[in-house]
Structure formats: C-alpha cells, structure tokens
Amino acid sequence: MKKALTTTALLAALPLAMGSTLAQASECGKVTIADMNWSSASLIANVDRFILEHGFGCDASLVPGDTMPTGTSMIEKAEPDIAPEMWSNSLKEALDKGVEEGRLRYAGKSLSDGGEEGFWVPSYMVEKDPSLATIEGIKQNAKLFEHPEDPDMSAFYSCPAGWNCQISAGNLFRAMKLDEAGFDIIDPGSGAGLSGAIAKAYERKEPWFGYYWAPTSVLGKYDMVKVDFGSGVDKDAYVNCITNADCTDPVVTMYPPSLVQTVTTEGFAQRAPEAYDYLTKRAFTNNQMNGLLAWMEDNQADGEYAMEHFLLEYEDIWTAWVSEDVVNKVKDAL
C-alpha cells in the first residue's frame, strides 16, 4: 500500500512538472536555426541549438542555410528564426531594410573581431627579421620569396581565379607596386591549393607571402603574421575601388573587418526575449574560432561533434554568455 501511494503521488505530480516544462517551452516555442554550409557557422548553429533547447526550453532544430537564400527567406517569410553567422556585407542593404521594416533584428556579432583578411607571412620569418611584418620590409627582401617556376621573380600567392578576393588582392598588389619589387602573382588554383602552399612552406620553414583570411583552420594551425601596409584602413577606397574589377587607380589600404552578425526574426526576439538576449552575448574571437576550426579539421569533426567538444572543453567562454541557471541546465544535458 505504501508503495502504491508513493507511485500515485508521483503520477499526480507528473502533470505539474510536465506543465511547467511545457510552459517554459511555449514561451520560446519552435525555433529554426540556419545551419550554414561552412564549418564555423555549423559549429555556432549547433551550439545555439543545444543551449536554446536545454538552457531555455526552446523546441530548437537546424535547417540548411546559406547567406543569400537564408537572408532572403528571413526577410520575406520570417524563417528560419536565427542565422547564427551572417556575413552581412554581402546582403547589407536588404538586411538593413528588413530591420527598418520590423521584420529582422541584428542580435550581435558572431565574430567579435569581424572577418579578417590580409597579406600574411609566417611568424618564424618575422622572428628573424621584424621588418618582414611591414610591406616595405617585404619589398626590400623580395628575393627571399622564391617563385616556383621563375628564379628571376618573387612569389605572391593570391586568391584562386573567380573568387571575389582575387579582385581585391590584385588591386592591392598594383597599389603597392609589388611588381616593381619583383613579385609575380601566383594563382593557387583552389582554396585547397592556397592552404596547401602555406602548409608546405610552414612544414619546411620556408618563406611564404600571400593573401589569406580568418577565421580558418589554417590560421589556427599555423602562426602567421598579418603584414602592415602602413596605410591604415580607407573604407571608402576599399568599397568603391579595391573590390571593383574596374578599379583603375587603386590606393593602398588595409582590409577593413567584415561584419559578421547574428540575425534573428523580429517574431523570435519578441516571443523569447531571454533566448534573444543570449544571442546578443554569444560571440567568438577569431583566435578562438581559428583554434576550434583547426581542431575540427584534425578530428574530421562536423558541427555537432565540435559543439560537444566546445561545450565540454571551453566552459570559461560559453558560461559567460548565460545565467547560472542556464549553465546548470546545459551542464546537466551534457
């Protein structure tokens, strides 16, 4: 009888507990998160899904995404609810209009440093000669950077043909008159060819000079130094000329950071303000993401596996984004 009464009491309490859980979930409701088709975005999407589901009681799920179609769908159809890593410069006018019309919100920066581009050299070269951290030092020591096919020329590794960054790198090459210093542009043929050139040079401790960007697994694996052009950032020149294939008179400018934001629908932000607040705080530095991407590549990890690694091994980062109550719920789920 005692056992039966205990069971009855537990069953009676169950609807109350379930009701509390359902009430919490209903506040957030169903949440769709764009799982973009590159590693950093997939990692962030999986982190958001796990924290929103277990920390905030959301019915969270991932849907396939990419910059243009996801942004357009959020503006026109109010779905998905969240784009965790939106490189917004490529869709800025449409996104800004969506915000102005009350369809979207910018929650915050996914990458607090912004996307980073530049010309790079290996750190072991700068350790031997600090002048190689500047473009003038590079030009004065051009002979160090041996051309793979022409011994009379020096090698500058650019973006593969057809990539947007090929235009900006080529215009900056002209602006800095690197050809007059003896440099020739090397087309690596593909992204893998470009990263492979860095890896090969690093493993042999050979000179290397060229374009690259962050966050990437390559800059997580190999310690590279971004070359200072001595110009600062001229954003107008960059936007209006350097990125333009028809730019006739390029000027020297460092690459401005690319804005990388978390975008949500207005409906999600209004119905789940606490969950939205988490997204305003959730951000990675490029160094943090570079290291995570290197780990993903070394371990052939997808976004879900990398999410588990991140939440287990980097508590000091993610626990700063949420309350103690949410931290405990996420830890219990892990």
UniProtKB/TrEMBL annotation:
Matching SUPFAM superfamilies: Periplasmic binding protein-like II (SSF53850)
Signal peptide span: 1-25
Molecular function, one GO term: transmembrane transporter activity
Keywords annotated in UniProt: Signal
A matching Pfam family: OpuAC
Residue stretches making up the ABC-type glycine betaine transport system substrate-binding domain: 30-311
UniProt superkingdom: Bacteria
Transmembrane segments: none
Any one of the GO CC terms: ATP-binding cassette (ABC) transporter complex
Protein name: Glycine betaine/proline transport system substrate-binding protein
Entries under InterPro entries matching the protein: ABC_Gly_betaine_transp_sub-bd
Organism encoding this protein: Marinobacterium stanieri
